[in-house]
Amino acid sequence: MQKIIVICGPTATGKSALAVELALAYNGEVISADSRQVYTGLDIGSAKITESEMKSVPHHLIDIAHPNDYFSVADFQRLAQEKIKDVHSRRKLPILCGGTGMYIDAVVYDMKFPEVTANPKLRAELEQLSAPKLYKKLQELDPDRALEIDEHNPVRLIRAIEIATVLGSVPKIEISDSQYDTLFIGLELPKEELQERIEKRISDRIPALFDEIKKLHISGISFEKLHSFGLEYRFGSDYVQGLISIDEFKELLATKTWQFAKRQITWFKRNQNIHWFNPIHDKQKILKLVQDFLR
RNA sequence: GCGUCGGUGGUAGAGUGGUCAAUUACAACAGACUGUAAAUCUGUCGCCUCCGGGCUUCGUUGGUUCAAAUCCAACCCGGCGCA
């Protein structure tokens, strides 16, 4: 089995820097697993790695979609698996690095998503319905899926109905054993430290972020769309439009980013294969682990 | 100093004699996750609990009442108006 390294963990723990370091040390290439960094123009707000930070290490799956494009886990999965194959074929080590847990799992565990493409017309219609109505609809189409789905979650319900409309029912997802020999490295920091880093990152980016958002908006990306990207783009848009003050912006974003970090942690906690490290103090341990893995 | 409005759980803010441990929102904490995943959604949220219930709360103290966050009095604190 071909080897890959996964670097995951909550936001602002230094994943990108570690990826570059490992890539330089072990002849690797980085494949970003970040649902926002795939978009062109979302640079500052998504904390996209800069040219100089890359230190000449090739980075993939960054800037591969336009913000107005529809881009999904399935797209990411396909592209990432192709890219991993490509990197292996050049006898280099793929390093999958990012904070989007579902993207990572989709690639590593090869989740077989039902091949039903998004149907914008149907979605727009269904979005008008309340969750109970959507649930009733799904019950009629696929009672089995209805039993296990979250009946309050419109996003999930709509997707399930979309699938069932085409296939008749929602197929059970198969999660196969990983097709790769994977080393999972998770980065974690104590609560206070992570919160400080989050706050610092916000104030460091403050003027540049607003310029970026204005630029994106002028280039044809609606505030509604920007809002849907969440966090810096959501609250940054609110600020740029004058809906909230700068202090409200900082506080809101810090709070929401922390909540996001906790959601990421909750996701990754489930994966028992992850080796957790402190990015500042455990550098040697990480290097040793990687060395043993690659031997 | 007089008048007036107000002081409610981490915060904002309902409640204005019993159905109130107190609507709701936010925060906090835990969790879910089948093509939007930085999204979306759920649970807990005074203290204790053998989960039946028990105990202490709505500025403070005292009073009225079978019963008070809700009524009365005094006091303390804050806003506003007049001096």
* Structural class by SSE content: alpha/beta
State mean pLDDT (0 to 100 scale). 94
Question: N- to C-terminal separation?
Answer: 14 Å
| Helix and strand pattern | EHEHEHEHHHHHEHHHHHEH
User: How many β-strand stretches?
Assistant: 6
Low-confidence stretches: none
Major sheet characteristics: 6 strands, parallel
Q: Identify the overall geometry.
A: globular
Number of helices: 14
The percent of residues in helical segments reads 40-55%
> Roughly how many Å is the radius of gyration?
20 Å
- Spatial strand sequence of the major β-sheet: 3-2-4-1-5-6
Strand content: 5-15%
Can you walk me through this structure?
- 54% of the residues lie in helices and 10% in strands.
- The chain contains 14 helices and six strands.
- The chain has a six-stranded parallel sheet, sandwiched between helices.
- The model has no long low-confidence stretch (mean pLDDT 94).
- The structure holds one RNA strand of 83 nucleotides.
Describe this structure in a few short sentences:
This protein is an alpha/beta fold and 295 residues long.
